[in-house]
Amino acid sequence: MKKLLTLLVSVFVATTMSFAQAGQGGFGTVMEIIESSPDHQTLTAAINAAGLADALNGDGPFTVFAPNDAAFGALPPGVVDELLADPSGLLTEILLYHVVFGAAVESVQLEDGQMITTMNGGDITVMLFGGVFINETSEVIQADLIAGNGVVHVVNEVLLPPAPFTVWDVVQESEIHDILEAAVLAAGLDGALSDPDAELTLFAPTDEAFAALPDGLIDDLLADPSGLLTDILLYHVVGSVALSTDLSDGQMITTLNGADVTVTFDGGNVFINDAQVILADIVTDNGVVHVIDAVLVPAAPFTVWDVVQESEIHDIL
Question: Do 213 and 312 reside in the same domain of the chain?
Fold first, then answer.
């Protein structure tokens, strides 16, 4: 591609252009600027591995914040090799986080505090203090390499998209959901609740809600997490996003355990079965959490008494 870039440039100006001249002249594409740079071999390899080269050779316009080889070299040992080994996964997300589509944003257009949406859907933040920084720590060390389909800004640190904030993160960070957290971990459902591609609604009982169950029942359920505990937990999860504004009185919603919960409006309060929603609409990247004040128990085949009878503590009740 370096020979191809030279050939393209020679057609336009009849001379051989360097990387910097390509930026100044506005010839070629952002991809050709990147791959013609001796300081962007890792980025070039990553783009090719992820199959994004054709896109960056397209019409654009694009703005690319291009980490140099030193930036990739500053990542923990082995990370680059791991990313290249699975280019369709996290590598693609990281690369797209460096690309803005629809505008060629030159340095004079950047403003302090400006937020720019990238092609992976996440925002980057521009900060101006003694230079131009992206997300506080990645400095633009060479700006305004103008291509025919956009502009490239060289940065000295790889931009890492923020991890998705999931319904599982809500549970983990909450001070009133320790029992729910322990139950989800015991049942092995944390992976499902943390899946960034999922679309979930979680009705999350508080610790007080679990404490209202018969004495010893929680410990018994945790001792056999693949049985009743999993059924009960899945009865609190819906496989779609239902904000409070999506709920209606009398609505029946099918949960992931196959049974329905019923929504009831009463005097301005919202109930899921007999559990009141005490905090609604904690929105996450993969769904929404509604905090409830009682544990939901599937109406069939289980009641709370059925759960007690099937547990080890039924003999003492």
Answer: yes
Spatial strand order of the sheet with 150-155 comes to 99-101, 62-67, 150-155, 138-147, 132-134, 123-128, 115-117
Is there a single domain that holds both residue 151 and residue 173?
no
Computed over every residue of the chain, the mean pLDDT equals: 87
Residue 146 belongs to what H/E stretch? strand 138-147
- Of 155, 177, 202, which residue sits at a domain end? 155
Residues 10, 75 within the same domain: yes
Last residue of a domain, one of 95, 130, 155: 155
The model's pLDDT over 109-121, given as tens digits with 9 standing for 90+, comes to: 999 999 999 998 8
Q: Position 51: which residue type? A: G
- Could you tell me the pTM of the whole model? 0.62
Q: Considering Cα of 268, then 271, then 277, then 281, what sign does the dihedral take?
A: negative
